[in-house]
Amino acid sequence: MKYAVLFEQTNTGYSADVPDLPGCVAAGSTLAETTELIRQAIRLHLAGMREDGEPIPEPRTIAEYVVAA
Questions:
Q1: Which of 4, 11, 24, 32 could share a disulfide with 61, CB 3.0–4.6 Å?
Q2: CATH architecture label of 1-69
Q3: 8 and 38 in contact (C-beta within 8 Å)?
Q4: Residue 40's closest CA among 21, 58, 68, 13?
Q5: Strand ranges (DSSP E) for 1-69?
Q6: SS3 state of residue 5
Q7: Per-residue pLDDT tens for 22-48?
Q8: What is the pTM of this model?
């Protein structure tokens, strides 16, 4: 599955969260590191949901840049 990830630059690097998977977050010092960490976090989050017998949510979030001219 392909989930939208929101990245935010912080004072110490980057943070990431997955709106369709509440609680699935990661943080790193670079964007590349944070991308890899959130990828791992998604895998672990989904594995935990499966283990607990929870339904896996379908990706629903759509992310797009909008020009506010």
A1: 4
A2: 2-Layer Sandwich (3.30)
A3: no
A4: 21
A5: 6-9, 14-17, 25-28
A6: coil
A7: 999 999 999 999 999 999 999 999 999
A8: 0.91
